[in-house]
Amino acid sequence: MKTLPVAEHWYVARRLDGRITLITEPHVHPIFSANMYLVEGTHRDLLIDSGMGVAPLRPFVDGLRRDARKPLISLTTHTHVDHFGAVQEFDIRLVHEIEAGSLADPAPYSLNAAALSPGAMAMFAAAGYPPLWPMLIDALPHAGYEPADYVLWGAAPTDTVADGDVISLGDWQAEVLHLPGHSAGQVGVWHGHSGTLFGADAIYDGPLIWEGAGYDVAAYARTLRRIRELPVRIVHGGHDQAFGRARMIEICDAYLGLWAQKRLI
Ligand SMILES: [Zn+2]
């Protein structure tokens, strides 16, 4: 296999407003390239998810923060590889209790696409994703990086979150929503004051993943029905671009209709 080029930047940040910054990993294949969000408050900052863990994340995040001396809460929405790869770099680590074990002690993972199960490959193709690359990355984070040495470390949570818990950053309070279906312990974050939903992998503007082992369509349908009723202004999903309420309803209805048609719900 020929050596991959070295990326100029591994992480890319885009300020979405005065408080929220989107962080992405453009050299990770679209299936595994999740959105991370830094939310800054007066007393604490919040980092929602931590990517694949291919390159150190904490120094990059601290470089974005207006005051990196404040506590930084890392919230893992769910324990799929693309959402908690760098969790061990953060000293405050929250996750839903259903996924506490898989955050602490994840199954080993490889960047070699050939290591993915045929079932997973078929499911991604059926969902409409582009074909995989030989590796899950198309560049190296630095010269000399060995993709074969990749380790999904994980780390024990320092606390767990449950539906209805409030995360306070001082001048910003948001509610934790338990959104099972795509994974059993997945959580989103709902800031009702601004109508902002961090939807994780429960809802984003791309093919949703609901089929196969570990997925629960009945629970997912309940989650989408619940999301559909929220007075949302903007959704920041676990993947892809942000979108508004009309598009959110369209996505919810498309999947609920599909599952009803397949007699899964
Ligand atoms: Zn996921």
From TrEMBL:
Originating species: Pseudooceanicola sediminis
Domain Metallo-beta-lactamase span(s) in chain numbering: 33-239
Keyword Transcription found: no
Keyword Ubl conjugation (UniProt): no
Family the UniProt entry places it in: Belongs to the metallo-beta-lactamase superfamily. Class-B beta-lactamase family.
Any one Pfam family match given in the protein's UniProt record, by short name: Lactamase_B
This protein's name: MBL fold metallo-hydrolase
Domain of life: Bacteria
GO biological process, any: antibiotic catabolic process
Gene Ontology terms for molecular function: hydrolase activity
Keywords per UniProt: Hydrolase
